[in-house]
């Protein structure tokens, strides 16, 4: 089975050679590459175009250069790449690669063998997050979901769909059957990266007829966008609106869909992470969005979602408060929490600064004491010869 690798790039010139080397390491004869550069300004697009023209990419390539940045993360690039992949004959599978990270050859080889054995519409694997700020490799925040997958390795289609929807929306963690993606409407990227990742995840999960899972790392993804997944920008509410539209397709009402409660669970889980770093200036807008989104959820669906989260989940009482309070009251509560968090952070900074100053003061005191001893020694040294001369 041949694979098509779709590489989405934007201003990743320093690491693009490593990314390409990993793709070449994972590719087999007959595989192909589609490159879509999302308006890079650091020369990434021109560099990739030059490599493609001289045949230096290592496998047959189609390249698309966008004239301006779409501001939608790799989502638009992936969708355009899928359109290009439709024109590649005999392509059996599609792999979406974010140019900011790179494939893990050993894990990818295992996932490829698993995919070729079962030939599902989607195979979900795992990935690691590279955090350049703390210089660590982290696992994504869906360990509990993998626990359920391990407990039900041969789940039927609808149970497998439930488990797939519980995974973090990350298109680079999956292998897709070309015919499956090719048969879907391409759609238009209308939001930012995190929103588009979530909508694409739900769109493909709801449409797939077969799934496979493999808890092996197939790639490294650089932190900063979906990997962080908790920027309080309101993307979660915008994505929830679009996911609700997907659920309503062919129905009079979105809440009639059997996975409506799963969508609410997804929204609440993301909301919990957002609130941990919600900025004071965003509280009022965020409160209005939260009250509108959660207040529209029918009681039966809300109860089912809370039951799936568990009574002890910290976001459940927060959600109940949002549904019963006014946006102004919710905003005031969040502003108080944000001020407390920012105050604690400022106090921590002051303590660190105080310790540093204290350390510098102690060092300065030791230096003064040393200088004083040197001066005393010098004075004694000058006096000794004089006394000797007098005797």
UniProtKB/TrEMBL annotation:
InterPro entries: Glyco_trans_2-like (IPR001173), Nucleotide-diphossugar_trans (IPR029044). It holds the Pfam family Glycos_transf_2. Residues 5-127 form the Glycosyltransferase 2-like domain. SUPFAM superfamilies: Nucleotide-diphospho-sugar transferases. This is Glycosyltransferase 2-like domain-containing protein. It comes from Gemmobacter nanjingensis.
